[in-house]
Model the fold of this input.
Amino acid sequence: MLRYGEKNRSKFPEKKSDGTVDVDLSSHKYVKLWQGPQHPGVTGNMSVELDVLGDEVMRGRTHVGYLHRGFEKLMEKRKFIQNFPLVCRVCVPEPDFNEYCYAAALEDLAGVEIPEAAKWIRTLVLEMARLQSYLMWLGGQAGSFGMGIPGQWTIWARDLVLERFEELTGARIYHIFIIPGGVRNMLPQGFKKRMNETLETIEEVVADVERVLLNNAVFKKRTVGLGIIDPDWVDEFGITGPNARGAGVPKDVRVDNPYLKYGELDVEAITETDSDIYSRTRLRMRDLLQSVSLIRQIMDKTPSEGDFKAKMPSMLHWKIPAGETYVKAECTRGEYGYYIVTDGSEYPRRVNVRGPSYTHAVTLFEKMLVNCNIADVAGTMVSLHTYPPEIER
Done:
């Protein structure tokens, strides 16, 4: 089917100096292809509608909403505490950032100050969430270019982190551990020892992945110079996190606007300058190892006893004074935020979720698809690290 466009090779328009082309698709015979929503090269349940000439993409359009959707309106119909099982679904691989932003926004509106131990444990939970998400992404990036072994290694390593989550929260994926006023429990006895053992294993796995993936000649040939994000696009498209830092723009909420206990930790906004897929892969691996370091720092400073939750009113009859606030955090994809408006009732008046995927997977990705080879669509998408429910929320 793809050879259909080859007949029109003589009609292909000339590329401009910036590498792009102006195409009037109505005057060309092209093939329409769909990648997803059920496809191993798709980030989550979304699909990409492609118009191609030969094996070159002329236009791409994203379609989302195949999984979870409509969270923001659903939250307006539920009491504050009833939304915690719901917000987790906005970003399945990283539910804890939703728990934190939602809880912190409510606490800000209600004037609640959480205990010191709760701040440390929340910081720990967010770094654990970052660690397991990066491990899953790393294997996915390898798989998008045909390398299966690194994904098997990293998913196994991620399971070790999920075991620590299960030990701490009672659940592996949806934890509902961060709640208004603090967290549900202190660290279990022996948790620090077992976590340190897990971190040592992860460091060994990452070293193996670096040798097999980053030092792989085929991976380098396919990713160096591919999927470049122009630094001028960062502000234009609202790019944050590793996608911005890979272009040399040091955007990291943990550094720019420290929250919880990040101001007391040795954390930096890691950057790369080449801004291609290879650079973003290397950057995220460095980010992953920084999370390992941060978790060790946090565990050394987390109190072993004390209050882990502030005194709170009945959660089923909690009324928050009228007001509005925006609380943000740094997830693996960049700035994650919740804008909440209250009217003095037991329900939120308005909730708006700011997920990085909205700009990365729609406007940015569709721009990057032009002139992309079909074989590189999956790898380009994965390199932006997106989760569709953040878009159709």
